[in-house]
Amino acid sequence: MINEAFLNDPYPAYHALRAEGALHWSPEFCGGAWLLTGHADVASVLRDPRFSVRRAGGWANSSGPGALAELREFKRIFSRSLLFVDAPQHSRLRQVMNAGFKPAALQELGPQIQIIVDRLLDRVLAKAADSGSGQFVEFDFMRDFARPLPALVIASMLGIAAEDRSEFVAWSDDIAAFIGSPTPTLEIARAAQVSLIAMNEYFRQLLPQRRAALGDDLMSQLIRAEAQGGIITTKELLAQCCTLLFAGHETTRNLLGNGILALLQHPQQWQALQSTPSLLPSALKELLRFDSPVQYTGRRLKVDVEMHGQLMKKGDLVIPLIGSANRDPAKFTDPDRLDIARNQGAHLSFGYGPHVCIGATLTYLEAEIAMRSVMRRLPQLQLAGDSQSWGGNAVYRSLNQLSLKFARPSAAVQATLAEAQYA
Ligand code: HEM
Description:
binds protoporphyrin IX containing FE; three-stranded antiparallel β-sheet; 19 helices; globular
């Protein structure tokens, strides 16, 4: 199932799978897994406590014999992440983390996100001055905007140095390459472990300094919970910081990239959004449904479960295909049509049930500020070519590169931007 054609466009494969049935056994997928294709089934499994999220060991196994022993550190760190623990441990960690995602905390983050967005766009616009004199200026939307933005926002949320951003992105990419591969090699697995250890060490070294001067950032809030009678242990605290750094930008950058691509490939929708920016919240929901940044997740069965006449055994891996659920015609009329005014049911791009994405509201806030600013500041934005380069990852649907062009700003605007950049 996972080949280049699938990575470029997984939706025909999902339609074919759904047409053949709601549940499939795949011997190749992660060393053997049940694939769930329909919206109702994916939602129901994601909220069913018989399906455990504890699967860090299973990934290690899928890298070949002996990998589990070698990947002990990866398993040890991630098995404390709220993404990979069940209740009651999960409920305790989630409550601690919720503090950083309350509306009031996010409201304060809004102006900081706007500053980060403005700086990145200033840089894109300032480059126009150094890039010839044609009517349009070309740039790589992923490299110059979508990739750095979420990493900078997470850094700001955790109160860590923005200068270390390139390391965060490289570490996260290694981890995503492992988690995102249905058939990871030992080499990919080892690289993920090295990066996760580096990330964990980064936060460990920050601890003494942060404990001495607590602030309003999320890391300080976790430290306060650690101090309050051990609501969270130090090792758990470090695992949550790594989870946030990883989960927060491996996903949001792809909403921005996939979203802008989909809009520019559908000029009528793009024009409708530009003329009616109040459609932005509903457009973001539709973009998340149409090309979900996270294509699937995984669960491991705690007990035998029968579904659609098939017996799934205790210990089996189950893959709820979010990307397929979001294009299920039983849930969405004409699911392959992008309709930014669609107001029909809930997409499952943020998951569902107890592990539903803790960063969903932050994502909407960040994406709304980003898209609004892009529309306002990059006039006549359009694709600079026909072909896009998709990353080789089955979970994180991700563009390596997205060449766009916009109308060159006037000389006066360019001069002001160049000055602002060097101020
Ligand atoms: C487009 C953006 C995003 C998408 C599509 C996305 C998707 C998801 C999905 C599908 C899950 C559930 C996984 C499962 O049930 O196995 C999840 C959980 C999670 N997400 Fe996101 N996410 C996004 C942005 C963010 C951001 C910005 C953050 C943090 C700053 C974040 C942090 C988390 C965390 C910590 C969890 C685990 C929650 C739990 O297990 O209780 N995500 N996300």
